[in-house]
Amino acid sequence: MHSIRIRKSNLIRHTATSAKWLAIAFAAISPILTSGGSASAQEPAPIVVVSAHVISEFPNGIRFIVTAHGDNEISSIAVRFRIGLQPRGVYEYLDFKPGGNTHAEVFWRTNTAQSYIPPETIITYHYEISDSAGNVVTTDPGELIYEDVRLTWNRVSEGPVTVAYHGPVKTRAQSVLRVILETLEIMGPVLGAGIDDPIRVVMYNNQKEMLEALPPRSATVGRELVTQGQAFNTVGTLIILAGGQLALGTASHEVTHILNHRAGHS
Q1: Neighbours of 145 (CB within 10 A)
Q2: Are 62 and 151 in contact (CB under 8 A)?
Q3: In terms of C-beta density within 10 A (0-12 exposed, 13-18 middle, 19 or more buried), how is residue 265 classed?
Q4: How many CA atoms lie within 13 Å of 22's alpha carbon, on the beta-carbon side?
Q5: 3-class SS at 36?
Q6: For the chain: N or C, fewer Cβ within 10 A?
Q7: 193: Cα within 13 Å, side-chain hemisphere
Q8: φ and ψ at residue 139, rounded to 5 degrees
Q9: Angle between helices 170-191 and 247-265 (to 10 degrees)
């Protein structure tokens, strides 16, 4: 059996030498530890976005609102938004009084034939705020369901399809959802259209509700024709009259219009 013997005097001398070199090494690195050990205080942002949101005021329009302040005068506030599945977006400046603390708004009208947006369409948006020193802040993207604020809505969803309804008609909404999914599965391959993009459906229970949600048109046409459904191909939204016997057939018919559009423009 082997053993290691160390004289006591050598051990004491070795320990003292080690302690000496340890002290020197610590002294050498301690400035590095001190300078890197505590994080420097973060510089305050030149522009602070206090709040940024969007309000649906269907059928009249959409209100974009921003409150911000900064070290320099805020020179411009703009919103970029996209309507449903439309590839091209909209860029619009908000109105405000220039200054360090700013509340800005713009109202985007949707109650004309040229600017109409159907209810239940998804609006994706973000804001861009600039100041006089050249600083620019861009907010995180947000989404708004441009819902008809006259009524309180519930929704059922499966896959890419969402059906909005109000009142005690959940069973009808589920039936509409099911027939649209079946139509996608059958007609998508026939037309060569993609079936994964979102489709938003809004159901109205009677003609009066629905008439006020459709694009502006003459009172004569509104009185003489009953619209069972209407598809808005470029945004991926459709409106149907759920109160009649034709609701399921209408839903299948209108979603086929959307598929046909997608097949022709893909």
Answers
A1: 16
A2: no
A3: exposed
A4: 6
A5: helix
A6: N
A7: 23
A8: -80, 160
A9: 30
